[in-house]
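name: query_chain
kind: protein
chains: 1
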Amino acid sequence: MRPGTVIPLGPDNARVTFLVRWFGLLRVDGWFSSLEGRLHVADGVNGIEVTADVSARSVQTGIGLRDRHLRGPRFLHADRNPRILFRGTGTWRDGLTPVLAGHLTLRGSDRWIEARCVVVPETRAEKPGTEVVIADFTIPRRDHGIAVATGLSRFNPLLWAIGESVGVRVEVHVPVAVLRPEPALARGR
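structure:
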């Protein structure tokens, strides 16, 4: 591992939310309440590596029946696939936008994803002394077998009403000094 700062991730400083369209108009959004991992920052926002482990059972939408369905076999299948894993392998810039890339393992399928990042400055962050790194990406739900209709379920109009992709947002509060290190003092003065 390169030199840098390692920050443990958990509910105190990180949040994973999602959004999917239903019937093209309605928004269904939620979050995962259990997450752990680490963020390794080697060179400000240009040198980020991350590992995240999210409990599929911790999905929350505010509606208990919907949450049970999302944990079930048609959606996250949390009994068989209890963990959602992300292993970010590094960042690069697309113009001015940092991009974090890595492997997402969801329902036993491993896919390469690229998350576009933005840094919310300290003046707009909820916690004093921190900046917020926000990473956004989309997951094509069928590629991971989420809400794929088989057999007679193919005729269930509610499954066809679910949007083709799920938008995911990860927010991490990072101390300002980690993302914007002080320049080294000139030696010999």
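note: The longest helix spans residues 64-71.
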